[in-house]
Amino acid sequence: QSVLTQPPSVSGAPGQRVTISCTGSSSNIGAGYDVHWYQQLPGTAPKLLIYGNSNRPSGVPDRFSGSKSGTSASLAITGLQAEDEADYYCQSYDSSLSGPSWVFGGGTKLTVL
Amino acid sequence: QVQLVESGGGLVKPGGSLRLSCAASGFTFSDYYMSWIRQAPGKGLEWVSYISSSGSTIYYADSVKGRFTISRDNAKNSLYLQMNSLRAEDTAVYYCARDTYYGGDPVFDYWGQGTLVTVSS
Questions:
Q1: Which of A53, B4, B10, B56 has the greatest number of beta carbons closer than 10 A?
Q2: Per-residue pLDDT tens digits for B17-60
């Protein structure tokens, strides 16, 4: 059971827009900690996609955008392309009683129809 | 360019030990915090351990506390994970990742390609 909750799967046709949600709690996202997003293409290591809720590292297309509100965050992908088919993970920081930890969502598999 | 290369994975029996290494290049290793993150087959990502740039601050996930030890050698640009008392549920690809602060909270901006650890009799 992941600390952050994501839908297991989403899908969309080429050119469409999809969103992936990430829900946390008062000890992580709701505590004001940033949300980051990673893209994992099949058989490869995760790659940073969005950092600090809504910032794109150099080289990431502006088709990818992130937002955060309250205890949740969202990743939006517009103009879907076949190469966007991948697993997407949200990540934040958690400050629970047992000590700090870096927490992930369970991952969302994006299928481009 | 930044490179992180893990090694040391393999097949080990339950209760056994293994030491993973991560060789860093392309950046000033001693300036950065580092973490180990794992991914069980077909599953999601799980943070395992963190070490500060000097090695003075270390954190572990509850699932590995008391069994795993993270360390680093800044002179060798290397990160390590000593894994003892291994269990079947430790089977996973283990990634080392650079921990960066972009003015906010820590984010993993670079990842290695991973090394597979299989715990089975």
A1: B4
A2: 999 999 999 999 999 999 999 999 999 999 999 999 999 999 99
Interval A24-44: pLDDT, tens: 999 999 999 999 999 999 999
Flag if A104 and B45 touch (Cβ within 8 Å): yes
Q: Give the SS3 label for residue B6.
A: strand
Main-chain phi, psi angles of B31, to 5 degrees: -90, -10
Query: With an 8 Å Cβ cutoff, are A101 and B47 in contact?
Result: yes
Contact A93 B62 (CB under 8 A): no
**Cβ contacts from A onto B, under 8 A:** 64
* Distance (Å) of CA B115 to CA A58, B8, B18, B112: 27, 7, 12, 9
Using CA atoms, how far apart are residues B100 and B6, in angstroms rounded to an integer?
A: 19
